[in-house]
């Protein structure tokens, strides 16, 4: 855990703009005060501050100059978006929200869900129509109770065909009725232009409710041809104590079973806690304690402060214990890590694998053989944190007059070799580039499931027709998934204690 001080080298007279900021106990919050918070927070911590002219420490010549600048933006959202670096390329992930309570729930993994995790795709021969496919079903949900299973196909919601333009409106309501469909690939698995989707007149009504997903969907030990293979389907890097205990217990089971090979299935894992990524990597290995798992590359001001005061704080090593501390530095959770001491790991990925998932792949690569199987990941090497309107930008002493908060990117996570620029994603070796077939997904964790079968064949050396040697399948346009309303579905969160000093 880290405690450090950051110099805010800006107009410290921001707090003296009394002409705009009257007593908030007697007057409603003004847009300019929230805009002040937005600029101040982004100036302090934004990873790409050096690239944004309007965030320069010498941007304003006077208080009036600064005030006029803030007044140019009608809303905090407008100002925030103007400060993002290449939002269609590099930073499509930083977010501002009007209510940090909603943000906190999302980051904890709590959403409204009917339990059906799905993907939305458009086939090459489709003009507008989109189909949905069930990726998996969450336990103890409406979808599970009503018999929804992985691989089911749907093409209508409340009787309306799903399209790119209407899917969010159709799937947003708390309750909706799904129209199921049959998928006929016309006897070809590679060519998609001749595939046929036909409604089968079967429907099902599903209702959402508050739900916190367990990130461990399934795990088991596969004994195949003398090999003891651990398999873990992990869908989110959660930081809750129970989640951490369960993850550590899975690795204890793998230890007891004498697992010699590990398959980490991150195909639907959009990310989560930086700490959890460090701990998972330490569970996979164990022989690199104290070595650098990843390094933090902040903006120049913060990086300089680190290098002058505590350069070691930029380095995040492999560890033997999971330890959480509060803002006072007191230990609130601690457990010894169960490690497998592996020199090789297989990691299943898709375009939905992002952030903390990519951190595990990138961070382990300098040390062990990481065999990536599936398709290219999302391409997000940056961490974020929640920034509140308070003297130290934490929730302590937060401004009571509004609930705006930001979740900006704060640093790039570089592996021990200094690599972090995988903005287009991390790709498997061509030998292991394999796609899921939506018409025949298979059961997760089953040795016959398409992606897992490829891994097992490589581990065991069993003779088979190579899946990866087939002619590449025609590309399918990925539209969205069940998390389309969650702006943090591809996130890597560093919520470790910070101490900011705003120096006059």
TrEMBL record:
GO terms for molecular function: endopeptidase activity; serine-type peptidase activity. Residues 229-386 form the Tail specific protease domain. Transmembrane segments: none annotated. InterPro entries: ClpP/crotonase-like_dom_sf (IPR029045), PDZ_sf (IPR036034), Pept_S41_N (IPR041613), Tail-specific_protease (IPR005151). GO terms for cellular component: outer membrane-bounded periplasmic space. GO terms for biological process: proteolysis; signal transduction. Residues 33-94 form the Peptidase S41 N-terminal domain. This is C-terminal processing protease CtpA/Prc, contains a PDZ domain. Residues 1-21 form the signal peptide. PROSITE patterns: PROKAR_LIPOPROTEIN. The keyword Hydrolase applies. Keywords: Hydrolase, Protease, Signal.
């Amino acid at each position: 855990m880290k405690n450090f001080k950051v110099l805010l080298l800006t107009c410290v007279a921001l707090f003296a703009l009394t002409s705009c900021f009257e007593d908030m106990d007697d007057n409603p919050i003004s847009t300019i005060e929230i805009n002040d918070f937005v600029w101040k927070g982004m100036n302090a911590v934004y990873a790409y501050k050096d690239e944004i002219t309007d965030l320069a420490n010498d941007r304003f010549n006077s208080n009036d100059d600064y005030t006029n600048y803030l007044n140019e933006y009608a809303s905090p959202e407008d100002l925030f978006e103007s400060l993002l670096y290449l939002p269609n390329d590099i930073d499509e992930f930083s977010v501002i929200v009007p209510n940090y309570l909603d943000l906190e729930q999302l980051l904890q993994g709590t959403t409204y869900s009917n339990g059906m995790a799905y993907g939305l795709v458009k086939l090459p021969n489709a003009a507008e129509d989109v189909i949905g496919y069930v990726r998996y079903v969450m336990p103890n949900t409406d979808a599970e109770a009503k018999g929804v299973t992985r691989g089911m196909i749907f093409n209508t919601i409340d009787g309306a065909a799903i399209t790119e333009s209407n899917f969010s409106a159709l799937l947003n309501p708390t309750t909706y009725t799904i129209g199921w469909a049959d998928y006929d690939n016309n006897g070809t698995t590679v060519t998609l232009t001749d595939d046929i989707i036909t409604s089968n007149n079967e429907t099902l009504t599903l209702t959402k409710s508050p739900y916190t997903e367990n990130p461990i969907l399934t795990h088991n030990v596969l004994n195949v041809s003398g090999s003891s293979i651990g398999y873990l389907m992990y869908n989110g890097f959660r930081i809750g104590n129970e989640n951490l205990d369960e993850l550590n217990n899975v690795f204890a089971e793998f230890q007891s079973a004498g697992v010699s090979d590990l398959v980490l299935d991150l195909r639907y894992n959009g990310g989560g806690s930086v700490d959890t990524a460090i701990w998972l990597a330490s569970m996979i290995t164990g022989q690199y304690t104290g070595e650098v798992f990843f390094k933090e590359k902040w903006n120049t001001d913060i990086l300089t402060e680190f290098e002058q005061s505590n350069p070691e704080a930029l380095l995040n090593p492999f560890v033997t214990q999971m330890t959480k501390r509060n803002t006072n530095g007191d230990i609130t959770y601690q457990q010894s890590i169960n490690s497998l001491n592996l020199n090789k790991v297989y990691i299943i990925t898709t375009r939905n694998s992002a952030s903390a998932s990519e951190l595990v792949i990138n961070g382990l690569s300098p040390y062990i053989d990481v065999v990536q199987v599936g398709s290219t990941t999302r391409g997000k090497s940056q961490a974020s944190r929640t920034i509140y309107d308070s003297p130290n930008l934490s929730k302590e002493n937060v401004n009571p007059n509004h609930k705006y908060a930001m979740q900006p990117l704060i640093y790039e996570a570089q592996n021990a070799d200094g690599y972090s620029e995988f903005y287009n994603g991390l790709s498997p070796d061509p030998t292991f580039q394999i796609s899921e077939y939506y018409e025949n997904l298979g059961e997760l964790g089953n040795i016959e499931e398409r992606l897992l079968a490829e891994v097992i064949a490589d581990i065991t050396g069993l003779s088979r027709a190579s899946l990866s040697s087939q002619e590449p399948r025609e590309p399918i346009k990925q539209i969205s998934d069940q998390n389309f309303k969650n702006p943090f579905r591809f996130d890597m969160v560093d919520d470790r204690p910070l101490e900011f000093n705003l120096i006059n």
